[in-house]
Structures are given as structure tokens and as C-alpha cells.
Amino acid sequence: MSTLSLAPAFSMGTAAAAPVQLRSGVRLTRRGRLVVFLTSLFVVLAVAFALAGGAVGTDSAGEQIPTEIVQVGPGDTLWGIASEIATDGDVRSAMNEIERLNALESAGLQAGQKLRVPVVSD
């Protein structure tokens, strides 16, 4: 028969080893933490304002398109309304313009709905 003996990894003698605590060289006081927080906040706000300043498209106001209100009748479609106002024959661009003016998500219309359409100049 064979025997197995294990040696302890550390000695449990009279002087027990105390756990080692590592301390960093910097300790912040309450005022120091406040200064770090406010400085970080200032940097974040400065970056946000710098990036938001470039979001301006132009310095002048855009030109408004003259429009009129059209009430959708039963059986009316966006294609039909756009074909009535498309003087150059480009019905798709007229449809896109009507969708943009009215913030439409789809080409579906309901009877009684009021739409802003560009004024046709003859």
C-alpha cells in the first residue's frame, strides 16, 4: 500500500500572516471628487456645444413654398392628387413633395383628410 502526505501551503504557526492591502498614491477628498466631477462635466458640455454648433444648415431662412389645402375625397389617391398638380409631368416628385409637406409615412389616404399641396401656377 502507498500513502500520500500533503504539505500545508502556509504555516499556521504563532505569527499568522496579515493580508496585504495595496493603497494607491492618490486619495481624493470630498472637495477633490467634486472638482473632478465638475471638470468632467465641463469637458462633456464643451464637446457637446462644439459638435452642436456645426449642425446649423444655413445662416438664412429657407423660402416657403406657397401651398393650398385639399380635402381628400372617397377614392382619391396620392398619385391622382399629385398628377393634378404636376405641371411638368413628373408625378413622383409631386408625390414626394406632398408627402414631405404633410409628413406622411405612407401613400395611403383617408376620405376627409386635409392635405397641403403646392399651388399650381398656370
Query: Got a strand count?
Result: 2
| Major beta-sheet overview | 2 strands, antiparallel
Structural class: mainly alpha
Query: How much of the residues is beta strand, in percent?
Result: 5-15%
Shape: elongated
Query: How many helices does DSSP assign?
Result: 3
Identify low-pLDDT runs: none
Helix content: 25-40%
- Mean pLDDT figure: 82
The assembly state of the depicted protein chains is: single chain
Side by side, the strands of the main sheet go: 1-2
Rg over alpha carbons: 37 Å
Distance between the termini: 113 Å
**Secondary-structure element sequence?**
HEHHE
Domain LysM: 68-117
Transmembrane segments: 33-56
Pfam family, one: LysM
Organism: Nocardioides alpinus
Main features:
122 residues; mainly alpha; elongated
Describe the structure.
The protein is built from 3 helices and 2 strands, in the order αβααβ. It is mainly α and 122 residues long. It has a domain at 75-118. A two-stranded antiparallel ribbon has the order 1-2. α2 crosses α3 (91-102). The N and C termini lie far apart (113 Å).
In short:
This protein has 122 residues and is mostly helical. The chain has three helices and two strands; from the N terminus they run αβααβ.
Question: Which SSEs are present, and which pair or pack?
Answer:
Blueprint: H1 30-53, E1 67-71, H2 78-85, H3 91-102, E2 114-118
Antiparallel strand pairs: 1-2
